[in-house]
Write a structure and sequence with these properties.
The complex is a heterodimer of chains A (547) and B (424). In chain A, 49% of the residues lie in helices and 6% in strands. Chain A is mostly helical and 547 residues long. In chain A, a hairpin with a 7-residue loop joins β7 and β8. The longest helix of chain A has 20 residues. Chain B has 424 residues and is α/β, with parallel strands linked by helices. Chain B has 12 helices and 14 strands. The chains are: A mainly alpha (547), B alpha/beta (424). The interface between A and B is large, with 65 and 73 residues.
Chain lengths: 547, 424
């Protein structure tokens, strides 16, 4: 290697400079201290810090949902100063240039959480996926406080479809969950997603390992019984145009709206009654008249007072960035499933509440914390820290995880302009079609689904041969390969640019040798060599992994 | 010289493999392709044990299909009819009634998981869900245990048709279900470049893979290499013809039913014939909390009856049934009590599964429930027991233990006991 390239590597691999340490928010110190305590307790040493280029790729993927392009990466790597990492986070969160991508990424994450990957894709459904996304995009773009967002999602009324009279995109969370099956799905989704309480089993019986009893399920469910979804049809046709979520008086199952109760059946066949009571035992008025009491508004209010609301979102966001939450699954905070770092979960929840539920602050704390700076190396000093084999996570290294299908799509599109042209709507339709190929459903009333974007053969086939890969490796005029081929001063430069664009590192000596062999095999056509190499890069585990 | 860089163009796949094997040691080690023995179809059929799981997503009301209670307050409107086996089934399953000498009903299933996700996991793996470990499902276990019988197989050993199935757990992603839609069409199968260039790209990819794995020392990287190999195999295999269900004669397609489940069952037969050890075919829509009997009579049962009977009959006629275990089940049964919406809710305490083929006895009703179907009156059986019995029917030893990633020994099928009435 030349002295010049050695020097470049040295810069890229350098730990943040030795100058005065940047001033970190107090919350970062809380995280660092409590996590380091765990390392001491278990007698492990954390992995070394990730180099700047890897870290830059990581934080782009996590905060705005795609890898950085070559220019963005270079800017960050070349920058001096010990506070460059916090400056990058600030830029991704607050610079207008990234607002749209930030909002788009988090809207995608939350759309999948709230209505599933398949929600709103079927014409017969009332859910409108565009409406859900629009609400969330707007919310994240203006950094709406999290508690406000939850309140709006739980209490929303209005029309599902953008442009329809009385449009309120937030209704899409509940619109397909209230009519069928007495609103069981509305109750179980709301409690699981926002409060970390898994109650679906308790609908039919008391669960042996769950503090929730059948009674509590139907009490919680009672909050949704004033709510209905109405279909609005296209004029003169039977196609659903959009749906509307409304509140209406609930007569109760004994037909007395002033005492609007519901019945449920014990396993032994006995019938019991339930009224709206929140999980902490707080009861509200029993009237079913909306003018007396709006049950969902009351539920929203009670949820905002619940400590579980804070813990659940902190746990979710931690898991989103670090690969594992403090509990597994991340949305089960029940007493049967104790968290790995209870004190940290509690402290972060409190801090988040005190920050007025500012999600960008929470992201700043997590991404600046020590565990988020570490490299993904499993070494002899931290070999027990392997949650993939069932150990509780100690966060002494960055856990490898596969990008989501959405992150991959966005990364390919940004790195190579593979989306082609067209309006926002056309591109969004293209993206959705592409994502839909991975969704498989389970045929239950609860809309359970899974993804085949999980490292299996269909995913590999898609990356080998799919349309997106073909576009990404195109050598046409103005394509990504075309631009790389015109960059730099030497073949070596161009190869480096290719690797930096895809993997945020330079090629190894062996990889450079393979590139030379490819060049010979392509009879000196460098563009074709770059094409082959780029194909290999986007198919590699290193590309598809968040690391 | 044997090098991927000098392979002449226009070679057959077999040569291609040999060239790769002769290339650099690193490349050969992890992209070693099969040694390309092309066996003919007859050879493929020999001694190959397979299983087909008909998965009824949502939890079917077995009290209305396989274990009727005519006259009981819980019985519902359906009447039982006689069959070619030593048992009766629902009147809306007339075609299956002609096949019941091949299939047995376990009427004494008694489980505890009445939530869809938990029930699906438990019935697929023989283990209750555990946050710290993921257990391999039927398909992954059976593929893993029978793969050595078929070194020539180039297509994935575990195919899931039309649904989601359940994963490979600690066996790793290379044992994951290969999901296809019921028309057998597979996306993204062609790359459209010369074989030689594809191979060279694979070598470049291999170099990046090896470097990453050695730097992070983490497991997913080595699993990825195996998946890449399997992908490469199927892209270049003639055996992929098995997926072309459209090649079947029209009357055969009609007999199975032209809906997704019918075509899925037909595809399953083609795959088993080609040597695939495990196929799962999904039929959802059994989560009938409302209006259950009309739904069953008008839609679900005719669809099930047509496809399942055609499959069993075909397997028998083609002499495949003696080597192929067929399993019919969902995540649980449904309440004997009919609810206010004229539906039935989730119920795991007393329900039925259907199984036959391989070395298992057909035509038998195993165990019984009480007069209202609310409890099992004989020895109760679990998912573990059923899975153990299926393994026995396929000649798979359940004494074997896997070692999970954290070093814990795990018995196949959770250490269940064989259902003695089903083995002679």
């Amino acid at each position: 290697m030349t002295r010049l390239s050695l020097a470049l590597v040295a810069i890229m691999l350098s730990v943040p400079a030795m100058a005065a340490p940047p001033v970190l928010p107090a919350q970062v110190e809380v995280i660092d201290e409590l996590i380091a305590q765990g390392w001491t307790d278990f007698n492990i040493r954390p992995a070394p810090e990730a180099d700047d280029a890897s870290w830059c790729r990581r934080v782009f993927l996590d905060v705005i949902g795609r890898i950085p392009n070559h220019q963005e990466l270079k800017e960050f790597v070349d920058e001096r100063g010990s506070d460059k990492r916090s400056k990058l986070i600030e830029k991704l969160l607050y610079d207008d240039r990234y607002t749209e991508e930030y909002a788009g990424h988090w809207s995608t994450v939350w759309t999948n959480l709230l209505i599933g990957r398949g929600g709103g894709n079927d014409r017969r459904e009332m859910t409108n996926r565009d409406g859900m996304q629009k609400y969330l995009r707007d919310a994240f773009a203006m950094n709406k406080p999290y508690n406000t967002m939850v309140y709006e999602l739980v209490t929303a009324t209005g029309a599902t479809k953008p442009g329809a009279e009385g449009f309120n995109g937030a209704v899409n969370f509940l619109v397909d969950k209230v009519n069928a099956d007495k609103g069981v799905l509305a109750a179980s989704s709301t409690s699981r997603i926002f409060l970390g309480q898994q109650v679906q089993c308790t609908q039919c019986h008391n669960h042996p390992f769950n503090q929730w009893k059948q009674q509590m399920f139907w009490e919680f469910n009672s909050f949704f019984r004033q709510t209905r979804s109405l279909r609005r049809f296209v004029d003169g046709a039977r196609d659903i145009d959009y749906a509307e979520l409304i509140n209406e008086d609930f007569a109760g199952e004994a037909n007395d709206a002033s005492d609007a109760l519901v019945f449920y059946e014990l396993r032994n066949g006995l019938t019991r009654v339930a009224y709206p009571v929140f999980t902490d035992g707080t009861a509200i008025e029993v009237s079913g008249y909306v003018s007396d009491v709006n049950r969902r508004n009351e539920l929203g209010r009670l949820m905002l007072e619940s400590e579980n609301l804070d813990k659940m979102i902190v746990n979710r966001m931690w898991g989103q960035f670090l690969g594992y939450g403090f509990t597994k699954p991340v949305d089960d905070l029940g007493p049967h499933n104790p968290p790995s770092q209870p004190e940290l979960l509690e402290r972060l929840g409190k801090e988040f509440r005190q920050s007025s539920y500012d999600l960008k602050q929470l992201i700043t704390w997590i991404t600046l914390s020590k565990p988020y700076q570490l490299s993904p190396v499993l070494g002899s000093s931290n070999s027990i820290d392997d949650p993939s084999i069932g150990e509780t996570p100690k966060f002494s290294r960055f856990y490898l995880r596969q990008m989501t299908a959405e992150q991959l799509y966005q990364s390919m599109v940004t790195a190579t302009d593979a989306a082609g042209t067209g309006s926002y709507e056309e591109q969004e339709q293209q993206r959705r079609r592409w994502l839909n190929q991975f969704v498989v459903t389970f045929g239950t009333d609860e809309g359970d689904e899974a993804t085949t974007f999980n490292g299996s053969i269909p995913q590999a086939l898609m990356l080998f041969n799919g349309e997106l890969s073909k576009k990404a490796t195109s050598t046409g005029k103005g394509s990504f390969i075309d631009r790389i081929a015109a960059s730099g001063r030497s073949p070596r430069d161009r190869l480096t640019n290719l690797f930096m664009s895809g993997l945020a590192r330079r090629p190894t000596r062996k990889e450079a040798t393979v590139a030379n062999q490819l060049l010979v095999a392509r009879e000196g056509n460098e563009k074709e060599m770059l094409q082959d190499m780029w194909w290999a890069i986007i198919n590699s585990n290193e590309f598809i992994m968040q690391h | 010289m044997n090098s991927p860089w000098q392979t002449p163009n226009g070679m057959t796949r077999r040569h291609f493999m040999q060239h790769l094997a002769g290339s650099s040691a690193a490349a050969a080690a992890s992209v070693t392709m099969g040694n390309a023995i092309y066996a003919n179809a007859d050879e493929l059929k020999k001694n190959h044990k397979s299983a087909i799981l008909l998965w009824m997503g949502g939890g079917p009301a077995t009290i209305d299909i396989w274990d009727l209670k005519p006259g009981a307050p819980t019985g519902g409107p359906f009447r039982p009819i006689s069959t070619t086996g030593d048992l009766q089934i629902c009147e809306h399953m007339p075609l299956m009634a002609q096949q019941m000498h091949n299939m047995s009903i376990v009427r004494s299933m008694s489980t505890r998981e009445a939530d869809h996700n938990r029930g699906r996991y438990y019935m697929h793996t023989g283990y209750v869900p555990n946050p710290n470990i993921e257990h391999p499902s039927y398909g992954s276990v059976i593929a893993h245990e029978t793969i050595q019988q078929r070194p020539e197989l180039e297509i994935p050993p575990f195919v899931s048709v039309g649904g989601a199935s359940s994963g490979p757990g600690f066996l790793g992603m290379s044992w994951a279900p290969f999901n296809v839609s019921s028309n057998g069409r597979i996306r993204n199968l062609e790359m459209g470049i010369e074989d030689r260039r594809l191979l060279q790209r694979m070598v470049a990819l291999q170099e990046i893979e090896t470097g990453f794995a050695s730097r992070t020392r983490d497991l997913p990287a080595s699993e990825h290499a195996k998946v890449l190999k399997k992908t490469f195999d199927l892209m270049t295999s003639d055996q992929m013809d098995a997926f072309r269900v459209e090649k079947e004669p029209e009357e055969v397609k009609e007999r199975y039913g032209t809906d997704n489940f019918g075509q899925g069952c037909l595809l399953a037969r083609r795959l088993v014939e080609s040597g695939v050890p495990f196929v799962e075919v999904d039929l959802g829509g059994w989560d009938n909390h409302n209006n259950i009997h009309a739904t069953l009579k008008d839609t679900k049962l005719p669809q099930l009856d047509r496809a399942m009977s055609a499959l069993v009959e075909d397997l028998e006629q083609r002499e495949l049934l003696k080597d192929t275990v067929v399993i019919w089940m969902g995540e649980f049964g449904r309440t004997p009590r009919i609810n206010q919406g004229a539906g039935r809710d989730h119920f795991a305490r007393a329900w039925s599964c259907v199984v036959g083929g391989g070395d298992l006895n057909g035509g038998v009703a195993v165990g019984q429930t009480n007069s209202e179907g609310t409890a099992v009156e004989t020895q109760p059986y679990s998912s573990e027991d059923l899975m153990t019995t299926v393994c026995r029917g396929l000649g798979i030893s359940t004494e074997k233990t896997f070692t999970s990633k954290n070093g814990r020994p795990m018995k196949i099928a959770g250490g269940g006991k064989v259902i003695s009435e089903l083995v002679s």
